[in-house]
Amino acid sequence: EQQDNWDGLPMSKFQGFWCPVFVLHPLLCFQRNFKALDTDVLLASVPKSGTTWLKALLFSIVSRDRFPIDQSPLLATNSHRLVFSLECFYYAEDDDPDLGNLSRPRLFSTHLPHQALPSSLIESNCKIVYVCRNPLDQFISEREFLLKNRLWPDKPYGEVLSLDEAFDMFCDGVQAFGPFWDHLLGYWNASLENPDRVLFLKYEDIKRDPLLKVKKIAEFVGLPFSEEEEKEGLVGDISRLCSFEKLKDLDINKNGIHFGSVKNNSLFRKGDIGDWQNYLTPAMAERMKTTLKAKLSGSGLILDI
Ligand code: A3P
Fold it and tell me: Pfam families under this entry (predicted)?
């Protein structure tokens, strides 16, 4: 089954999800060749759910014995260059990237749904941190990002669909790596089955109490903060370093290039909860609430809308 996304991105329904066509080959290489280590940490998310933020937090947490806060590589490097996306890695390196030299624990990210993760990863003891976001904010964040950045300008794009048409597709489950609810449910169910392996986080919860979540992530990846570190205020330092306000204003994120013609500054838009209210009508929100109620029914997963 083939369909273009509202921005023209060609997608194919593959292994139960809408896979961007350019990801098909890297996905198969990743599934076939990736050898997970028990010490690996994988960050998983639907795009525009807080990946950039969580990469910064995870990097700061696991590398805190190597870099004092004022010498953090995050001050000069965008977090996407410190924590690689496995799809992009396999896309760029053509089949078999060399991942052996990365410092331990190796940190990676993916937008793939749980059912598409390589068996090596599922069978290992590696940790998976999942971050999700209120779907209406995710939708608006993605729309605003893609309207500003035509990701594959060399590809023959179709016409960009209107907000109403794009929202219809979203409510029908048509989006890159979606349906949205299936993506969340895959990791949600895995976190219930194996809470030591999968940590399920919500963007809104981290935003409301970043210190609590920084401690939780550190414990989850097996690197809890010592009493001394807590007394020194390291948890607060990491949370401030990785905050939207701090990262957004760094030179590297104001001026640096993410990839192609996409600038790092497009990764930092508003960083708010509830920005969807500036774009979508209450009726649209009701429609998504009704859809989610049906799709998440019986799962125990409740999202803030
Ligand atoms: P908005 O477009 O709503 O502002 P991703 O990193 O998965 O692409 O998600 C991007 C969204 O996360 C954008 O949301 C962006 O502004 C927000 N974001 C980026 N860095 C952040 C941070 N340090 N803290 C909170 N939100 C952040």
Answer: Sulfotransfer_1
Cα–Cα nearest to 264, from 277, 250, 253, 276: 253
The CA distance from 204 to 104, in Å, is 29
- Are 199 and 41 in contact by the 8 Å Cβ rule? The answer is no
pTM for this structure?
Answer: 0.96
Q: What pLDDT, in 10s, does the model give residues 189-201?
A: 999 999 999 999 9
Q: Which atom of ligand 1 is nearest to the CA of 131?
A: 7
Tens digits of residue pLDDT in 69-95: 999 999 999 999 999 998 877 776 666
d(CA 129, CA 251): 28
Residues catalogued as catalytic: 111
Q: How far, in Å, CA of 56 to CA of 212, rounded?
A: 16
Q: How many CB atoms lie within 10 A of CB 286?
A: 11
What residues does ligand 1 touch, defined as CB less than 6 Å away? Answer: 45, 47-53, 137, 141, 144, 242-244, 247, 267-271, 275
Q: What angle do CA 155, 180, 254 make, to 5 degrees?
A: 60
Output helix, strand, coil percentages for the chain, rounded to the nearest 5.
50, 15, 40
* Nearest atom in ligand 1 to 47's CA: 7
Task: Please give the distance, rounded to the nearest whole angstrom, from the Cα atom of residue 51 to the centre of ligand 1.
Answer: 7
Rounded to two decimals, the ipTM of the complex is 1.00
> How many whole angstroms from its chain centre is CA 297?
24
Closest C-alpha to ligand 1, atom 17? 271
